[in-house]
Write a structure and sequence with these properties.
The complex is a heterodimer of chains A (about 475) and B (about 375). With about 475 residues, chain A is an alpha/beta fold. In chain A, a hairpin with a 2-residue loop joins strand 5 and strand 6. The longest helix of chain A has 19 residues, at about 345-365. Chain A starts with 6 loop residues before the first strand and ends with a helix. The chains are: A alpha/beta (about 475), B alpha+beta (about 375). The structure holds flavin-adenine dinucleotide (FAD) (2 copies). Chain A: Pfam families: Fer2_BFD, Pyr_redox_2.
Chain lengths: ~475, ~375
């Protein structure tokens, strides 16, 4: 008999709200579940380090953050195996050629410097979101970083930037982070708001929906507080980071005039997009979402993808926020249980009803936010001299030149320019390359398509691969915990 | 005047891989009007994603005259296509890990010498170390072909296409050929998107799908669809110039000028040609990783950032099908390159053009006849 430990009914990838909720629910109904996350602690992006954070003053990160702790008890009680520090680099499409004809899905992962393949019957990908790349001239200078990356430092280490700090961009998370920094007593010299003026006109008809949103009151309070205490400069249409080896100043354009601010740190943010690399590499169909201006995997109401046995939950399937992610996780878990024959269809639907209602509530008003905070085209498809692919240092101009040579989409751009072929596998350039090619060709991003990604979706070392254990006993030896 | 010129091509080439593009180029150079029909886009399959190895080393003896003639074209590739295709010639090396393997290499050189070819030679341990300082201590020598090298696949295939277009060839992408009918000495070629094209002559360069074209005209071939895999590492400091393979195991190992290292060599994933898709098999990739671990100790800490596989046609005897159809007039085949057809691209296009415009070629292509599979 082989050790059953590396053989589970369900693997959940990602321990943010979606993954935590999915794993806890699936395991509580008797399925054998493993929850995998590359981070050392559960929580995902929003509840990052919720069990460990040195930020003891609850006011700093706000009550929403601390809700994350409430998801951990049910997970512990459920009996799900929890493997933190496990990076999933491949999820193969299911095969049905095992001895019993049962569906088996092979997952490649690395943990503690060793690689292993895991066999499961269903996978729920809850890989969350990534900050949308915000390419401006100078964004590769030391001192310029994503606002989300800066927030990770705050949550995990209690660190805030020192020196002159400027925030720039658009979207709810930018305001949230500014507010968290205010609470933490950090210095913010200015917020440069790049939300295009005309977005208001487009968003206004969607306002009634937003007025019923659970986020409205919270969001308003937070924004008012930030506006009262910080300098907010609106209608910013162009941005540049300057410095020689390190950031020195930020130049911005407002009403056609350039202004300059000294800065040691520039925090950039204009929204988040689904982290779809794993789903894409697994072969899940995806579509262009015009409202959120991003690619998202195609799913049904339960998060099921075009690949049997692989479902998605949370921001990785389309941006909906933490509460929506949590409920979507539960729906995906119930559907997985049903597909594995653990619960009947009626039972699934019955158990799902309250979660579906909660999901709908959580998504109320989303369309307004998506429309209002659509980033300006100038930042989605930047000017020629701006680097878009940081791994290979490819500029927007080089991408446009490739289009003129006959490059019609991101995959050909890879072959022409090597962009998207570096260690980040397109995470930092994919959305921009799509936008630049679409704009240059004068067609929709839906038509130009997106990178075809391949495992490993996260770099692994040659040593890990060379030592890939062959048998369950080998795996046991390296994965004992 | 232009308005009345017939747009009917003289030759339709099915498949926009390197072989289809090369045939189109050589035909166009002779004033033949060519139309290339490609179901996806040019260089989408094997020709755009291969390892770029330009290798005479270790080839099947039947291929040696062709590979040597192709190498001559590679060394003047800019004259042919107005682009250097990223071709660099730092040699290819097949490492021997034991005296027995070295003996195999000596026998190989003797065989080639008897046939009159001198491009391969055996080197001992010292010379091997001079060529590849990073090689593991246990390696005893190698088979070397100094004129070999590597090029950039996508760029190469595109350069062939560009030059062919500049000479008048036309390319129609996005429509798969579904039917081939011959009436009144004319081929009528139908595509899935509703196109119908006519020409007196057809070239079947459809790569891993070429058996379907052959079957259309009553000429079935035992073609196997394979998915060779490759992986690439993050940049490491430059440490090697030649392309390295092994005698006793499968390997193709090469460093790009930007520092990344390409690792491949014959190991296969799964190919699903109807979906244009391949799936990697990491237990096989790990076999490759172990080979590199053994041969290049300095690579042990390297990071693999990407891997992929391409769809390729393999024939049972591992050599291609080149030449006229055995059942139909005015139909020529060029496929089944069995995972090593990139280097042959420049010459096989010329051979096909020779056959179409002159009825014969000066290179020995009898071993590649499709007739060898006839029942
Ligand atoms: C940088 C950043 C900061 C954010 N901060 C906030 C915030 O403060 N408040 C807020 O309301 N929203 C925030 N968001 C939005 C937010 O992520 C959510 O709405 C919410 O966290 C989504 O939950 P989720 O479960 O879908 O994904 P996440 O919470 O993002 O969880 C995904 C998890 O998957 C793991 N993962 C991904 N790929 C792999 C892999 N290949 N192998 C192993 N593990 C993997 C990640 O480590 C992560 O822990 C932030 C987004 C980003 C990108
Ligand atoms: C990963 C990998 C590594 C390799 N490494 C090397 C190497 O280092 N050195 C070397 O010499 N060789 C190498 N090869 C082999 C080499 O790539 C191939 O032999 C060569 O590219 C074959 O070219 P082709 O034009 O015959 O096929 P392809 O490039 O596959 O072109 C055939 C084209 O025909 C099209 N087509 C098919 N059916 C139809 C239809 N019905 N209608 C219209 N169009 C159609 C396809 O879409 C395709 O684009 C490698 C191959 C792979 C996959």
């Amino acid at each position: 008999m082989s050790a059953p430990k590396f053989d589970f009914d369900i693997a959940v990838v990602g321990s943010g709200p979606a993954g935590l909720a999915a794993a806890a629910l699936a395991a509580s109904k008797g399925a054998s579940v493993v929850l995998l996350d590359e981070q050392a602690e559960p929580g995902g992006q929003i509840y990052r380090a919720v069990t460990e954070t040195p930020v003891r003053d609850r006011k700093v990160l706000g009550p929403d953050y601390w809700h994350g702790a409430e998801l951990l008890g049910p997970l512990r009680d459920s009996g799900a195996a929890h493997w933190p520090g496990a990076t999933v680099w491949s999820v193969a499409r299911p095969r049905e050629d095992g001895p019993d004809g049962e569906r088996s899905i092979q997952i490649g992962l690395s943990r503690n410097g060793a690689a292993a393949m895991l066999i499961v019957r269903h996978v729920i990908l809850a890989t969350g979101a990534l900050e949308r790349p915000f390419p401006i001239p100078g964004w590769t200078l030391p001192g310029v970083l994503g606002a989300g990356a800066a927030q990770v430092l705050l949550k995990t280490s209690g660190l805030v930037p020192s020196g002159a700090t400027v925030m720039a961009g658009s979207g709810p998370l930018l305001w949230l982070l500014a507010w968290q920094y205010l609470q933490a007593g950090a210095r913010i010299d200015a917020i440069l708001d790049t939300t295009p003026k005309q977005n208001w006109r487009a968003a206004l008809p969607l306002l009634p929906g937003f007025l019923r949103s659970p986020y409205l009151a919270k969001g308003m309070k937070l924004m008012l507080e930030v506006r009262r205490k910080l300098t907010v400069i609106g209608n910013v249409t162009a941005l540049r980071a300057d410095g020689d080896g390190a950031l020195k100043s930020v130049t911005y354009t407002r009403n056609g005039t350039e202004h300059r601010l000294p800065a040691d740190t520039l925090l950039l943010h204009h929204g988040v997009v689904p982290n779809l690399n794993l789903a894409n590499a697994t072969g899940c169909a995806q579509r262009w979402d015009e409202q959120q201006r991003c690619w998202r995997p195609t799913t049904d109401a339960w998060g099921a993808t075009s690949v049997e046995g692989v479902s998605l939950a949370g921001d990785g399937a389309g941006i909906g926020g933490a509460r929506a992610a949590e409920e979507a996780g539960r729906l995906a878990a119930l559907d997985a249980l049903h597909r594995l024959g653990r619960i009947g269809r009626e039972q699934r639907d019955q158990l799902a009803a309250p979660h579906r209602a909660a999901l709908d509530r959580a998504l109320t008003g989303r369309a307004f936010l998506d429309t209002l905070y659509t980033p300006a085209e100038a930042f989605r498809a930047p000017a020629d001299d701006t680097i878009v692919c940081r791994c290979e240092e490819i500029t927007a101009g080089a991408v446009r030149e490739a289009v003129r040579l006959g490059c019609s989409g991101p995959n050909q751009a890879k072959s022409f320019l090597r962009c998207g072929m570096g260690p980040c596998q397109g995470r930092l350039c994919g959305p921009t390359v799509t936008e630049v090619i679409a704009a240059e060709r004068g067609v929709s991003p839906a038509e130009v398509g997106y990178y075809r990604l391949r495992p490993p979706v996260k770099p692994i070392t040659l040593a890990e691969l060379a030592a890939l254990p062959k048998t369950d006993a080998d795996i046991d030896a390296v994965f004992k915990h | 005047m232009t308005a009345t010129v017939s747009t009917r091509p003289d030759v339709i080439v099915i498949g926009g891989g390197l072989h289809g593009c090369s045939a189109a180029l050589h035909l166009s150079m002779r004033g033949v009007r060519v139309l290339v029909l490609e179901k996806d886009h040019v260089a989408r399959h094997a020709s755009g994603v291969n390892a770029g190895g330009v290798r005479q080393l270790g080839r099947h003896v039947a291929e040696v005259p062709l590979t040597v003639a192709s190498m001559a074209l590679w060394h003047r590739i800019r004259d042919l296509v107005d682009d250097d295709c990223g071709f660099e010639s730092h040699g290819q090396i097949k490492v021997a890990e034991s005296e027995a393997e070295l003996a195999t290499s000596h026998a190989r050189v003797a065989e080639l010498t008897a046939l009159g070819f001198t491009h391969e030679e055996v080197v001992g341990q010292d010379e091997l170390r001079a060529l590849v300082p990073a090689i593991a201590d246990h390696c005893v020598g190698a088979l070397v072909s100094r004129g070999d090298g590597a090029a950039i696949p996508f760029r190469t295939t595109f350069a062939f296409r560009r030059k062919a277009i500049s000479l008048g060839a036309r390319f129609q992408e996005g429509g798969a050929v579904t039917r081939l009918v011959r009436k009144n000495n004319l081929w009528s070629v139908e595509t899935a998107d509703g196109g119908v094209y006519e020409a007196p002559v057809v070239v079947n360069a459809a790569g891993a799908w070429a058996d379907r074209i052959a079957a259309q005209v009553g000429e079935p071939v035992p073609l196997e669809v394979i998915a060779p895999m490759l992986m690439i590492t993050a940049r490491v400091p430059p440490f090697i110039k030649p392309v390295v393979g092994a005698t006793g195991r499968t390997l193709s190992f090469k460093q790009f000028p930007n520092g990344t290292v390409l690792i491949g060599g014959g190991l296969l994933g799964r190919a699903m040609r109807d979906e244009n898709r391949t799936e990697l098999d990491f237990s096989q990739v790990s076999v490759n990783a172990r080979t590199v671990w053994d041969l290049f100790p300095c690579m042990r800490g390297a990071t693999i950032v990407r891997s992929w596989a391409g769809i390729e046609a393999r024939m049972p005897d591992q050599i291609p099908v080149i030449g006229p159809s055995g059942t139909q007039p005015d139909l020529y085949h060029s496929f089944g390159f069995s995972a090593h057809g990139f280097q042959l691209g420049p010459i096989v296009g010329r051979i096909t053009a020779d056959l179409i415009t002159g009825g014969s070629t000066d290179l020995p292509i009898a071993p590649f006849s499709i007739g060898r599979f006839a029942a």
